[in-house]
Amino acid sequence: MRIVAAAGELRDALAPARREARTIGLVPTMGALHEGHSSLLRAASAECDVAVMSLFVNPAQFGPGEDLARYPRDRERDAALAADAGVDLVYAPAAEEVYPAGFSTTVEVGGLTDVLCGDPNRRGRGHFRGVTTIVAKLLNLVEPDVAYFGQKDAQQAVVIKRMATDLDYGARIAVLPTVREPDGLAMSSRNAYLTPADRRRAPALHRALRAAADVAVPGAAARDALAAARAELSGAGIEPEYLEARDAEDLSPVEAFNGRPALIALAARLGDARLIDNVVVGATTDPGGQENR
Ligand code: AMP
């Protein structure tokens, strides 16, 4: 496995693969790898001839009061896990490489980024602008055949699919199922912020989503499903930042379930950790093609 830090080195390293028409898979990450990342890396390695991982804690997607400075970083462990998962090439640039002096272009997807995690009253659209700008740069540099993302960040996946379609990226956007701890907690680099007491409460997020999914049969009202989730959360003393049912493809609000895939998504702050999770109902398979519960 090779690690490069400059865009030019990345292009050079990929040139032979491109010349020989070998397929390239890209997995963008911010490091602090866990099994959720590894599942994407293994898929890229299994499905593509060359598996590329980017490792960059992207300042542009953090808001002013957010956790950029203390985001967990462990390059050596990440490199070992990436190699284990079959990664061939790691692109780990410094911030100045990605955003040199004078950098002034952004990529922004409208509409889809105004809701849930992009609600201007909460995190704001700046988060997704940061995500789509870096992912656009990575797609341009790597020119992958497939780019892999996790269903854990469901809105991010929807937004990136939209961007890839709108901007004519050739890459297929693959979305793979959320990997969970044995007690149901979605794996996340931010779980490291949880105190032992909050770690014990945290599985209530997934229990709440499952309770909602049990109610969310065709014909059921979204408010009833969300009430079931809310009851589970309040039993654990958790007040969600948001808890909503939305169309899984266009994120429009869902009032009643009708058999179309619907996303039930939540965000909640437990101490210093802001956690998000979701389930997809109304489809036997999730957008990644595997069971999501
Ligand atoms: P991050 O390093 O948090 O930016 O995540 C990099 C990629 O890994 C994103 O596509 C995430 O959606 C995905 N990911 C993060 N956590 C999980 C998980 N628990 N299961 C599956 N994919 C995940």
Strand content: 15-25%
Tally of DSSP helical segments:
9
Low-confidence stretches: 286-293
Q: Which of globular, elongated, flat, extended, rod-shaped describes the shape?
A: globular
Through-space gap between termini? 34 Å
- Helix and strand run: EHEHEHEHHEHEHHHEEE
CATH superfamily of the largest domain: HUPs
What characterizes the major β-sheet?
6 strands, parallel
- The CATH topology label of the largest domain is Rossmann fold
Helical content (DSSP H or I, runs of 4+)? 25-40%
Strand ordering within the main sheet: 1-4-3-2-5-6
Based on DSSP secondary structure assignment, what is the total number of beta strands?
9
Number of structural units classed as domains: 2
Chain-wise SSE layout:
Blueprint (H helix, E strand, L loop, with lengths): L1 E3 L2 H13 L4 E6 L5 H13 L2 E6 L19 H10 L4 E3 L3 H4 L27 H17 L3 E5 L3 H13 L5 E5 L19 H6 L2 H12 L6 H14 L4 E8 L14 E9 L2 E9 L12
Parallel strand pairs: 1-4, 2-3, 2-5, 3-4, 5-6
Antiparallel strand pairs: 7-8, 8-9
Helix pairs in contact: 5-6, 8-9
The structure holds adenosine monophosphate.
Describe this structure in words.
The chain has helices at residues 7-19, 35-47, 75-84, 95-98, 126-142, 154-166, 196-201, 204-215, 222-235; strands at residues 2-4, 24-29, 50-55, 89-91, 146-150, 172-176, 240-247, 262-270, 273-281. Mean pLDDT is 95; it is low at 286-293. The chain has two domains: 2-176, Rossmann fold, CATH 3.40.50.620; 189-284, 2-Layer Sandwich (Pantoate--beta-alanine Ligase, Chain: A,domain 2), CATH 3.30.1300. 42% of the residues are buried. With 293 residues, the protein is of the alpha/beta class. It starts with a strand and ends in a 12-residue tail after the last strand. The longest helix is centred in the middle third of the chain and has 17 residues, at 126-142. A six-stranded parallel beta sheet has the order 1-4-3-2-5-6, with helices on both faces. It has a three-stranded antiparallel beta sheet with strand order 7-8-9, with helices on one face. The chain is 35% helix and 18% strand. Helix 5 (126-142) packs across helix 6. The protein binds adenosine monophosphate. Adenosine monophosphate is lined by residues 29-30, 36-37, 39-40, 149-150, 152-153, 178-179, 186-189.
